[in-house]
Design goal:
11 helices, alpha/beta, four-stranded antiparallel β-sheet, Alpha-Beta Plaits, six-stranded mixed β-sheet, 38% helix
Length: 301
C-alpha cells in the first residue's frame, strides 16, 4: 500500500458564518498526481492555503508525512505554486537564485536545470514584463526547486496556450515518473486533468464529495449506447430478452446501454424489426466534466 504523504481530517475554515472548507478529509498518497476538481469558489485555493500554513484552519487536523506535529518543518518540504509572485524587477535566474537562498538549496546546476525544464533559459527580461503563461512557467520552476517530495499546483495551466499546456503536462508527468514526485493539482480545465491525474477529489461548497482513482473514474464514465425511441420501457424489456443486456432510463427519457455500444447497427436493426420507432441511437462516453456536474447535481438533490 502506498505511503500517505498528506492527510486532512475534518479540515474546516470559516469566515464568519461562511464555511470555505467544511470538514474536508483528503488523502494524498506517495506517487499520486491528485486532481482536485471544483468550481471557482469551491474551496480549492483555501484548502491549499491551509495545508501550506498561509491560512489558519478553524477546525480539523493536517498531517504531512504521517505526523500532525512539527507542521512547520514538514511544510518546508512542500513546493507550491499559488498565484505565482516574484520580485518584479528581477529576471527568472535572479528570482530563482533568491529562492535558493530562502530554501537553503544549492543553486549550482539546479537553476539551469529548472529554467531549461520550463523553457525560460536565456530569458533576461524582468518578471514584471512577463505574460501570464511565462509567470506560470516560473511559478512551476519555483515549486520544483530543491526537488521537494510534494508539489502543490493551483491552476498551473491558467494563461497557457495549447502548446504550453502540453509542456506543463509533460513536466508534471516526467517529474512524477522519473523522480517519484507527488503532485496535487487544481484546474478548471477538466479534460486536461483527465489526461494527467492518477486520482481525483471532487469539492463543492467547501465539501469533499468524493475521492476515486483514474481506473474507477473511467469505469464510471465508460462508453454507453444512447437510444431514443417511442417506447423506452418496451425497448429495454425487449433488449434484455433478446441480448441479455440491462439498460437504464435517464430522466430525459433515454435508454442507456453499457454494453453492445460497439454494435449500434445490430441493436438498431433488432429494434426496427421489432417495430420500435427510433429517433436516435448513438454511442457516447461521459466526460470528466459531465461526471462532475452530475455529482454536483446529486449533492444538491
Amino acid at each position: 500500500m502506498a505511503e500517505i504523504l498528506l492527510q486532512t481530517c475534518d479540515l474546516t475554515k470559516k469566515y464568519g458564518d461562511f464555511s470555505a472548507l467544511d470538514k474536508v478529509s483528503l488523502t494524498l498518497k506517495c506517487g499520486d498526481i491528485y486532481g482536485l476538481i471544483g468550481r471557482n469558489g469551491a474551496g480549492k485555493t483555501t484548502f491549499f492555503k491551509c495545508v501550506m500554513g498561509l491560512a489558519k484552519p478553524s477546525g480539523g487536523s493536517i498531517a504531512i508525512t504521517g505526523t500532525s506535529s512539527r507542521l512547520g518543518d514538514a511544510r518546508r518540504r512542500i513546493g507550491f505554486m499559488i498565484n505565482p509572485a516574484f520580485f518584479p524587477y528581477l529576471n527568472p535566474r535572479e528570482n530563482l537564485k533568491y529562492l535558493c537562498r530562502v530554501k537553503h538549496v544549492q543553486p549550482k546546476g539546479e537553476i539551469e536545470r529548472l529554467l531549461k525544464l520550463v523553457q525560460l533559459e536565456g530569458v533576461k527580461k524582468p518578471f514584471k514584463t512577463f505574460s501570464l503563461g511565462m509567470k506560470q512557467r516560473l511559478g512551476l520552476a519555483g515549486a520544483l526547486l530543491g526537488r521537494p517530495p510534494i508539489i502543490v499546483l493551483d491552476e498551473p495551466i491558467n494563461g497557457l496556450d495549447p502548446q504550453g499546456i502540453a509542456d506543463m503536462r509533460g513536466v508534471i508527468q516526467r517529474e512524477n515518473q522519473t523522480k517519484g514526485t507527488t503532485f496535487i493539482v487544481s484546474s478548471h480545465i477538466l479534460s486536461e486533468l483527465d489526461l494527467v491525474a492518477t486520482r481525483f477529489g471532487f469539492i463543492e461548497h467547501g465539501r469533499l464529495l468524493q475521492e476515486l482513482d483514474h481506473t474507477d473514474l473511467h469505469e464510471r464514465t465508460r462508453k454507453s449506447l444512447v437510444i431514443e425511441t417511442n417506447d423506452v420501457y418496451g425497448a429495454r424489456e425487449f433488449l434484455q430478452g433478446r441480448f441479455g443486456v440491462v439498460g437504464s432510463i435517464t430522466g430525459e427519457g433515454r435508454l442507456l446501454l453499457e454494453s453492445h455500444f460497439d454494435q449500434p447497427q445490430v441493436i438498431a436493426r433488432a429494434l426496427f424489426e421489432a417495430g420500435f420507432e427510433l429517433s436516435r441511437l448513438a454511442p457516447q462516453e461521459t466526460t470528466l466534466e459531465e461526471y462532475f456536474m452530475r455529482l454536483v447535481g446529486s449533492s444538491h438533490a
